[in-house]
Amino acid sequence: RMVAAVLAGLSLLSLLTCGYLAWGSRRGGAGEAPGNLLGEEPAAGALRSQPHIIFILADDQGFRDVGYHGSEIRTPTLDKLAAEGVKLENYYVQPMCTPSRSQLITGKYQIHTGLQHSIIRPTQPNCLPLDNVTLPQKLKEVGYSTHMVGKWHLGFYRRECMPTQRGFDSFFGSLLGSGDYYTHFKCDSPGICGYDLYENDNAAWDHDNGIYSTQMYTQKVQQILASHNPRKPIFLYIAYQAVHSPLQAPGRYFEHYRSINNVNRRRYAAMLACLDEAINNVTLALRKYGYYENSIIIYSSDNGGQPMAGGSNWPLRGSKGTYWEGGIRAVGFVHSPLLKNKGSVCRELVHITDWFPTLITLAEGQIDEDIQLDGYDVWETISEGRRSPRVDILHNIDPIYTKAKNGSWAAGYGIWNTAIQSAIRVNHWKLLTGNPGYSDWVPPQAFSNAGPNRWHNERVSWSAGKTVWLFNITADPYERVDLSARHPEVVKQLLRRLSQFNRTAVPVRYPPKDPRSNPKLNGGVWGPWFKEDEKKKKSEKSKGANKQKKSKNKKKAN
């Protein structure tokens, strides 16, 4: 009772830690444009009713890993942009790369695209289903120039899956989920290795000058902005590789972090410092070339941090790849001169699927009635501080991931099989079933030694048969008190909601790997390997073989 009372008193507790660093001008940085450009006026006529949209997606940035959340890693650019914009402090994404990216670009939950399970692997004949309309396609319909720089990770086994076929006028970046920051090579398994840097639909060998990817991508963004007419609306999707492993950074970014003993945390800090500087330089370019005054800059991480790779989600529970808050509650903010309530904090519920309808509406586009979206238009929530139209989030239902051996229909009151990994949020309540994943709290002192030290981690032990958890996230954002036994009626209500969602799910797309995907068969490059002509030839051959069999059978029958 005492704990419950304390938790109730904490219902309005902020996860913020105030105090951000000054912006400060820097030189010779990550793709920096020459000169101090912050004071320059925008080009005349740049203001239009359709805003320029710049969506920046970081990779594997932990919830704590930003200055305004109390991190020891300096992020003056992010801190300033967030402080002058709107911080999203009840903002959710998915626990891994592909799911977050697919939901951003379609406005749909994973269960409605078939990407419920894991990520798209490099060797799988799989991609974001071609019948899904994408955000850049909708923006192109209303006159936007659309450009993507960075990590795709939505499949590429056939040409139709490539970014330039899914709505982007141009693409410069990688197709896979990770790779070397300098050489752009990636090995999926021993002997299955290839080059992964593309410009539009071709390998970008000419751009392979050993430049660190964060800096290289920023330079590309600057080139796009310099060559585009700011009087015409632009959508820039900048999906940085940082701070995903492998942990690599240029030497000079280690300068402020040599005191960090944990080598992974030290490298991670240097990578984040470089990313912060890169975003400063993107902002400088927006000002220099006349976009800034009519722009909307959205910043988001794609999932929680990975402590074993230097990321920190403290004080949240869990990590990347899990449905605990540390895996799905993200760093996010909106910065724009067009915001009405600048310098504020939004604590309303916002999900990554919401960007699709929000940005299309801002762009004066139309959302077709037959597109059944899971996202909501949340611009008034963010800009004006109004209530969010969203009251629930289906974090996911993964029918393939059934590692909770003790899960059963009985444990789910006959409503739901709790062996299935699933998670849902409805108002203040969050329910998890199955095996939610790594569940430790990893405090800052866990990074004090040379290697990851789990001795410092906090754990909660539960019976081996447990497959249902219930939390009041508003009162208990750190998921320390399981209320499933105390509120069985709430558990049943949320299980019914899960069941309702599940009835709308499409079959899972998770095919076995295809040996034809080996880069050795494609000039040493990761890229489309599935040829439509081959499929037709095979079907024609099979049809011919069937005809021959039928004629033979007829002869035998005669």
Automatic annotation (TrEMBL):
The keyword Transport does not apply. The keyword Hydrolase applies. Its cofactor is Ca(2+). Belongs to the sulfatase family. Residues 506-558 are annotated as: Disordered. Residues 530-543 have a biased composition (Basic and acidic residues). Residues 51-363 form the Sulfatase N-terminal domain. This is ARSJ Arylsulfatase. One of its GO terms (molecular function) is sulfuric ester hydrolase activity. Residues 544-558 have a biased composition (Basic residues). Keywords: Calcium, Glycoprotein, Hydrolase, Metal-binding, Signal. InterPro entries: Alkaline_phosphatase_core_sf, ARSB, Sulfatase_CS, Sulfatase_N. It holds the Pfam family Sulfatase. Residues 1-24 form the signal peptide. It comes from Pomatorhinus ruficollis (streak-breasted scimitar babbler).
